[in-house]
Design a protein that fits this description.
Layout: H1 3-22, H2 25-34, H3 74-83, E1 85-89, E2 92-98, E3 105-111, H4 119-136, H5 138-147, E4 151-157, H6 165-190
Amino acid sequence: MSRKGAKDRKSTKFIKELLVILISRKDAKNRKNEGVWKNVNFLRPSRTFAPPREKNMTSTPRYFLRKADKLKSRKAIDAVFRKGKSFSIFPFKVLWIDANNQHALQAGVGVSSRNFKRAVDRNRIKRLMRDAYRLQKNELQSQLVAADKSINVFILYVGKELPEYELVFEKFTTILKRLIKLSNENSEVGA
């Protein structure tokens, strides 16, 4: 094979690539329709679209943990630790206080750096705790809204080993039931 033939093939390939780049999308579409560009698929969108929603769907509960649901204020957190009541359900310690804020329920989670030196481990435990709380908080929240009350909760992980998600979820079920019971008792005493 001659050297010139290989060079011609390279140059024609280069010219084709240049033409593809330089030709506008509309022109390329027209040319494609004429059959000039049979193997050029750069015009087809690679997006996939979700199927259309049914209009008469039953509403399922949505599980959010928004910024307003998080206990972020330094003053509020200090108040929970100084004046709050507490109970333990191993491996969690729960501190809570009646609050006078516009949100019915605000919660925070924490893990001791004394027990878990690596931030990766602490962050994983906090993520598991937040997720278990997010999925189960609706019952407590709706009850507080109905009673026109608000509480701040801070949940500490006091165990020494990395927990499994099933354990965290199970314990959070118990914690939230206990908080429901405590909020009912306080509303009866206050009435």
